[in-house]
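Loading example: each entry is read as two labelled lines plus one structure line.
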Amino acid sequence: MSSSSAEDIPDQCTDLFTQDGVLVKTCIGRPIADLNSHGMLCIMLNPRGNKVIEWRPNDLITIDSDTQDQEWAVVNTIGPVHSRWGACQDLHWPAHCRPKLPRDAVYHAQPRGNKVIEWRPNDLITIDSDTQDQEWAVVNTIGRRQRTLSGNLTSDYQTARARIIRIPLDELKSFRVNRTNQQVQFSTKQGVWQTTFHFLHGNAEVFVSNLKNYVKTAKVRHDRNTYIVVEPTDESQVLNKSFAELDIFTENTTDVVWNLVSNFKQRPYETTMTAFSKLTDIVYYGNEATDKRDVSEEVADLLTKSMSALDEATTVTKSEGYEVISVKPTLPPRPNIPRGTPLSTEKWEGLQDTHGRVTEVDGVKQLIFRGGVAHSIRHSVWKYLLDYHPWHMTHAEIQTLQRKRTEEYFSMKLQWRSMTEGQESRFSEYRDRKSLVEKDVNRTDRTHPFFAGDNNPNLVVLQDILMTYVMYNFDLGYVQGMSDILAPLLLLLGNEVDSFWCFVGFMDRIASNFDMDQAGMKQQLLQLQQLLTFCSPALAQHLAQKDSGNMYFCFRWLLVWFKREFSHRDIMRLWEVLWTGLPCANFHLLICVAILDAESEVIINNNFGFTEILKHVNDLSMCLDVDKILSTAEGIYHQIISAQHLTDQIRVILGMAPLNITRSTSSEEATSQVNGTEDGLGIFSPGMDEVMYQIGLDMNF
Amino acid sequence: MAKTYDYLFKLLLIGDSGVGKTSILFRFSEDAFNISFISTIGIDFKIRTIDLDGKKVKLQIWDTAGQERFRTITTAYYRGSMGIMLVYDVTNEKSFENIKNWIRNIEENASADVEKMILGNKCDLDAKRMVSKERGEQLAVEYQIKFVETSAKDSLNVESAFYTLARDIKAKMEKKQEASNPPSRSGAHPIKASDMQRKPASWLSRCSIL
């Protein structure tokens, strides 16, 4: 069956997501007979590139029951019909539904329609099973029928149409999932829930989380289960969204944080904070300090504390009966370090001399570390951060370099492009890599519009860059995860050559993640464990007791630098900060520590075991606040380097020279030795006041 | 808190990258299919509790990254698994050939008596098929492992494959229990030794062998 090649079938519909076991509970304007029908809920891409939520009743499709081998009959007959005539591609019906199916109906999507929810009766189209050549027979039959139908609706068709339920995503206003994950309601009109679906398996959240890949949503303030579909162009709604994201995040942490947020909502003017982002900082940092105590009692206290990041109260020594806190008395209090604003266009231009040389490299990095890069200049700044453009080069020199790199790229690309089929057939190692790249390219960020849809040209670019990288570094070749690393670069830079060289720069930093023997990953996991033992001994101990001391549950975080844990927007921010190499080596490990530290109570108090730990950590994906984590990680960094008991092991992990002294309990000596020695990393050691002072300087740079 | 299940079985999905392990798991645990799956990095698992001969059996099914390079990490999770699904892609010859390597991998890293089953996935893609059903069956005979062709997309045989594997594990487990509890003393416990011997459901007669 060759008809699945999409080039000659422009009218194809694709099911992006299907979920079985879904009943229609209510649907405005629907005959009662249709309610409680079993069916399948889909998110479908129609030929116009619009997406539709579609519910199809189980009795919609029929298979020719005379055929000996039912499974193959379905494929042979229905498949080509759909691909050729623009109907939905995915007609293959779940095997267990088949016996119930009435005969002689086919589901087909309107070839020119929009995204809708639609339900159709099953007597719509007949499959001619007697024909010798089934494929063509079917095509002919259905083709004619369908054309007739699309021009002139028969009553059959209208009955049929009445049964499918379709909700075009661009008309969807809001949806709501109930608390038990059994029902989802959709609304295309303010204030009216037109359709309710019941999920037999109680897994409505699966549908909702997939739906959220295709629509931008905001949560309603006072109803945590309702999502409003946000038009991305409407700025006020974008703002709503960012508020909503905060809610989403807090919902996924403890109730304590949730309560705090509502408290802040109720008395926002009691703080001197004007920006909500700042407010959240305080919520979180305040929370760090007080989450062991009753929240309502502590709100006022917290607000006071928030005024001074270095307030002594953050030590939490008062909270009794909670061992988590009592086991980490040796670290100094964690400073609350606010994030800065992103490097702006004006600043960036101001930092270049008339020839385009970037003069204050350290200063630029410092700014980027503090606040990231404004999106509008990322495409330029990233090339410097990823060592593609040397900082000291003039515009003219960079142009020359770029020309050279472009030639170099295309000559490497030609190497694999000119490989003949015969060569390939005798080059298994190359063949294996190619097929691995193909497989991964086809499942990299496909929900992002930039990579979505069949025959997306950006996928070809993604593939070409990865294949050329195979030629650039054949020893390393392609390893899973690399496509995740490349995708945001290509998305941002758009240009094949630039993306390749920036990818090379990124890979140079993390190549050891992809070692054949995984030595690089194992070393980082070990270092992470050591850092955690130093910073959160109680958590480290708990993990060790639960057979999780190898930190394997952080593998995904480290392999692709948290790519799977954050949205594209956030991962760009996180990566550019990490690329600065500030404030120390292996800062990405402190990011891990920051995330884990925030989860430490949940993990310990619930006495999570081996499997629960893994699940909990995996489920943090897309629920993390990048700014909060960066800020916490930096705070932890300052705690570590000003700790009295800082060990050489930790110093080495953070890129500081070991002191090679025998450790005594009083480390005054050690501290003084740190000061003014090697890399200037120790200069903050004596006290947090200096830390804050230095940060103030950095921010005003 | 009272247990909500009678048995907990740890199962494992292994096989080459891109054969559809995650899709199979998603089909079984959520009865859903997503066209834009992402590759699995590291390891994850899903839970589904099924009813098996009147017992609640909680299946904890682990999904692993397929690329060979990650095996040093993924094999750490083999420990304690009671059943393994070896998955290949019927449209990918290499993934089929590699089943032998995966079996060796199991022998080295999993317990010797782990129940196994071979799944030839993506059998809906008949046009692209490279591995015939007969070859799958042959391999299964060779290794004395049950075999079935599946389609996560069309929900074909996924459900029954997991039920079969679970049923085999349960049978083996109860047989062992019986052996350790001599029949004379096990008056209180004669749970369905006979049930256990019962042949798996009839679908096997068509779709699988052994």
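Strands of chain A lie at 14-27, 38-45, 51-57, 118-119, 164-168, 174-177, 183-187, 195-199, 217-220, 223-229.
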